[in-house]
Write a structure and sequence with these properties.
The structure is a homodimer of 459-residue chains. The longest helix of chain A is centred in the last third of the chain and has 18 residues. In chain A, strand 21 and strand 22 form a beta hairpin. The termini of chain A are far apart. In chain A, the strands form seven sheets. The first copy, chain A, has a five-stranded parallel beta sheet with strand order 3-2-1-7-18. Chain A has a five-stranded parallel beta sheet with strand order 9-16-10-11-12. A five-stranded antiparallel beta sheet of chain A has the order 21-22-25-24-23, sandwiched between helices. With 459 residues, chain A is α/β, with parallel strands linked by helices.
C-alpha cells in the first residue's frame, strides 16, 4: 500500500518537496496531498514589489507552476484548505475546507510543514484602518494595486528593509509622494549604518522623503475608518495609503501548538536533513524554520525564496529515499533600489559584536569595470574581519553599476569556506576590462583588510 | 647605505613591486631603478582590443601611471633601456640605452625580473610581410590603428583565443570584412568545444567568417612585401591586414641565459613568495613566470594583468620587509565578445583527462535574472566534477546577459576551496529577481552535477 505525504503550504518549500519526492517515488508508492489555504501555488513573493512597481506586467508571471500543473504530476493540491492542527503521535492533521467550512482528519506517513511567514503588524492604535497593506502574498499585491486605482497622492512606507525600500520606489513609479519612516538610524539596516547612508542618499535622489529614528506610534484614520496619517516619534505624516515593510515572522504557531520544537528566534527547529528536531516523519522548511548562520554559529530566520526552494529539494530527496542536507546560511542578500545595487553577506558590525568577535573593518571605493572602460561606475565595498586571525566575517556592497551586487557571491563562498582576508587577496577572480578593474573591488577590500590586520598585530 | 632594487620591465609586475617596496622603504633605505625597453609604464595590455575597437577612445586612458608619476615617488624609471644580461652571482645587470647605444653595468641588492611575454609568431613563410600585427604593446595597437587609416577592406585574424576573438570584433567595428582562422575545432579553445560552439555562432551572427581546423601554412605577400592573403589547410583567404592572436609565451630567455630556473612550460620558476627558485635576491612575476594551477597541480603560464599585479604586490611586500605569498591560480578568465559574456575557471575536459581525473559533466541553460523579470537572458553553464568524490574541477559559462561572466567568481572561490558539487548545491548565493532566478544558474549546474555523481555511484 502506498504511503501518504501530506504537505502544509503550497509555495516554494512545499511544492519543491512534493515535486522532488514525486520524481523519486511514483503515485503507486507515495500519495502526495498538499493543503494550501490561499489560491495560488509556487509563486514568487520576492517579485511582488516589482509587479506593483510595473517592471513585471502580469501577476501570472510570478506563478512558477499552477495547481493544475502540479496535479498533472499526481500531486493532489487542495486550495483554500487550512490545516488547523497537527497530531504528531497519531500521524494526522485536521484540515478545514475554507469554502465549505467542513473539517476532516487526514493521516500521514510523512508530513512537510511549509507554512511560511507573516508580515510583522505592530499592535499599534489604528493598525486595522483601511489602506494599510503588508506585502507578502499575491492577494496583498492585488489589494495594493486596486487601492492605487483610487489615485492616492501620498504614501507612507513603514520600515526601511528590502521590501520597504523596494515598495517606496514602486510607489514613486506610480507618481505618489512617498515618505519612508524607519526606526533605525539609517534605512536598510541589514547593512551597517555607514553603508545604509548610501542607500538613504539614493532614495532622496529620486524624491523619497526618508525619516529615520521615526518609530511609529499610531496610525490615524478618518471618520470612515481609512488611514489618513502615520504618527511617529519624528512627527506625523499624512498618508492616503500605507505599506508595511517591517519584516516577517515565521508561521510556527501550528507547530508549536502540536508540541514540536520551536527555537529561540521563533522558527521551527530541524536537523541537517530538515527533519523537525526529535521527529521521525515530520519535516519543515522555508520561512517557518530557523537556520544555522555558519558565521555566527547562531540560529536565524531568513525569509528568502532561494533557501525555501533548497529546503524543499532537500526534504523531497530525503522523503524520496535519497540523502541531502542543508548546512545553513552565511546571510547573503542582494537588492536593487533606485539606481543602486545593494548586497551583503555574513555579519554586520553589530552582529560581530553581539557574537563576541573582535574585528576590524576596511572600506574601499572602486569601480565595476576598468576605470577607462565605458560604463564603469563606482562601487563601495566594506569588509569585516576578525582581529588577529583575519577570518572573514562579512562583506557589504553598495554600487551604482550593473554587476555590483552579485560580486557578493565570491565573498559568500569565501565565508562559507572560512577564508581569511589574507588568503582572499590571492583569489583568482575573473578579470577583463569590461568586467573589472585589474584589482577586483573584492580583492581590493581584502587587501585593505589584510593590511589592517597586519598593522593591528604590530600595534 | 641604501640598498638598490633593480626592476627589469616597467609594466604591471615591475611597477607594482616598485610601488609596494617604496611604500614600505624610503629612498634613504632603498634606491629603486627600473629599466623598461619600451616607452610606457604601467599600462593595460588587456585594454588594447577595446582601444582598437573604439570602446576606449584615448590610448592615454590605458596608462595607469606614467613614468613621471613614478619618478615623483622616487622610482627612477629609465625608458628605452634594455637589460641584456643578468649576473646572479655578481649581483649586477648589463643594460643598454637603446637611444645612445651605450652599455653599462648596474649592481643590485634585489632584482625583479618582470619581462612579460611576447606574442607567438609562427615561423611560417611570409610571416615578416608588412601588415601582420601582434597585439601586445601599446606600440602594436598604434601600428594597427595607423594601418586601418589606409582603409583596408579585408582582415584575417589568426587564432581564436581571447585576443583573436576580441580583435575580430574590433575589426568588424571598423567596417572590415573579417575572417577568423583557427586550427582548433571551435574558436575560444580555452572552453570545451561544446561551449566554444556558442561563441562560434555569436561571431557568425555579427558577420565574422569563422574557419575552424584551419592551421596557417603561409602568409602570401604582394610585390611590395605587403601581406595579401593567408593560406590555410582550409583554403586561402585574401587579407589587407592580418592580426595574430596565437597567444603569448613567457619572456624567459634573459633568465635562462643567466642560469636561472626555467620550468617545463617555459616560464621562470619561483617559490611562494615569488623569489626565483634557488635565489636569495632575485624575484620574478607576471607573464614571464610559471604559476601553480591549484586544480591540476601542474605549472602553467597565465598572461593576465590581474595576476601580474598580484605578483608585483607580493614581491614588493617581501622586498619591503613584509610577508606575502602567491599560492597559485585556478585558471579563471572572462571575456566579452559580440553580445556574449564568456567565462571559465578550472579544468576543461581535455585538461581533466590529461591530468588523469575521471569526471562527469553537467550542462544547464538558465537565465541571468528571474524568468519573469525584464532583461532576463539565457546563460549556459557547464560544470565538470570528479567521478565518485564530486570534487569540482571546472566551470564554463556562456551567456547573453549582463552578469553572466562574473558568476564565474563564485565557482572560482569554490574551486580554490576544493568544494564538492554536492556541497555547492547549498551555497548561499545572492538572490533577488533582478539578479538571479531562485536557483542561481551556478546552483542549478551544481544540482545537476551532484545528481549525475549520485547516479554514477549507483550505476
Amino acid at each position: 500500500m502506498a504511503e501518504r505525504l501530506v504537505v502544509i503550504g503550497g509555495d516554494a518549500t512545499g511544492m519543491s518537496a512534493a515535486s522532488q519526492a514525486r520524481r523519486r517515488r511514483g503515485p503507486e508508492d507515495l500519495e502526495i496531498v498538499v493543503f494550501e489555504r490561499g489560491r495560488h501555488t509556487s509563486y514568487s513573493a520576492c517579485g511582488i514589489p516589482y509587479w506593483i512597481g510595473g517592471a513585471v506586467d502580469n501577476v501570472a508571471r510570478l506563478v512558477v507552476r499552477s495547481p493544475e500543473e502540479h496535479r498533472i504530476r499526481d500531486i493532489d493540491v487542495h486550495l483554500h484548505h487550512e490545516v488547523e492542527a497537527i497530531d504528531p503521535q497519531g500521524g494526522e492533521v485536521r484540515v478545514r475546507d475554507l469554502a465549505s467550512g467542513q473539517e476532516k482528519r487526514v493521516g500521514f506517513d510523512h508530513l512537510v510543514i511549509a507554512t511560511g511567514a507573516h508580515p510583522v503588524r505592530p499592535k499599534l492604535p489604528g493598525i486595522d484602518a483601511e489602506g494599510i497593506y503588508g506585502v507578502q502574498t499575491l492577494d496583498d499585491g492585488e489589494a495594493v494595486l486596486t487601492d492605487l486605482e483610487r489615485k492616492p497622492r501620498r504614501a507612507v512606507v513603514v520600515g526601511g528593509g528590502y521590501i520597504g525600500v523596494e515598495m517606496a520606489e514602486a510607489m514613486v513609479k506610480h507618481g505618489l509622494k512617498v515618505t519612508l519612516v524607519d526606526q533605525a538610524a539609517e534605512p536598510m539596516s541589514t547593512l551597517d549604518p555607514d553603508m545604509g547612508r548610501l542607500v538613504h542618499q539614493a532614495m532622496e535622489n529620486i524624491g523619497i522623503d526618508v525619516v529615520t529614528e521615526a518609530g511609529v506610534e499610531e496610525f490615524e484614520a478618518d471618520s470612515r475608518g481609512r488611514v489618513r496619517a502615520v504618527a511617529t516619534k519624528q512627527g506625523t505624516f499624512p498618508a492616503d495609503v500605507v505599506v508595511l515593510g517591517l519584516g516577517v515572522r515565521p508561521n510556527a504557531a501550528l507547530a508549536q501548538e502540536a508540541g514540536l520544537s520551536v527555537g529561540a528566534v521563533g522558527g521551527i527547529c530541524t536537523d541537517l536533513r530538515m527533519r523537525v528536531t526529535g521527529q521521525e516523519r515530520i519535516w519543515a522548511g522555508g520561512d517557518c524554520v530557523e537556520v544555522l548562520n555558519l558565521v555566527s554559529g547562531r540560529p536565524q530566520n531568513v525569509a528568502l525564496g532561494t533557501h525555501a526552494n533548497k529546503h524543499g529539494r532537500v526534504i523531497g530527496i530525503n522523503i524520496g529515499g535519497g540523502y541531502a542536507t542543508f548546512p545553513g546560511v552565511v546571510g547573503t542578500a542582494v537588492s536593487k533600489v533606485c539606481d543602486l545595487e545593494i548586497a551583503r553577506t555574513g555579519l554586520r558590525e553589530s552582529d560581530a559584536r553581539q557574537v563576541g568577535f573582535e574585528y576590524l573593518t576596511a572600506m574601499v571605493t572602486s569601480t565595476s569595470r576598468a576605470g577607462y572602460f565605458p560604463g564603469s561606475s563606482p562601487m563601495t565595498v566594506k569588509m569585516i574581519a576578525e582581529w588577529r586571525t583575519g577570518l572573514l566575517l562579512g562583506v557589504q556592497i553598495v554600487g551604482r553599476a550593473a554587476g555590483a551586487a552579485k560580486r557578493i557571491d565570491a565573498a559568500a563562498v569565501a565565508l562559507w569556506n572560512k577564508m581569511t582576508v589574507e588568503e582572499m587577496t590571492s583569489l583568482d577572480l575573473g578579470y577583463a576590462p569590461p568586467f573589472s578593474p585589474v584589482w577586483d573591488p573584492i580583492l581590493l577590500a581584502a587587501r585593505k583588510a589584510a593590511e589592517a590586520i597586519v598593522a593591528s598585530c604590530q600595534g
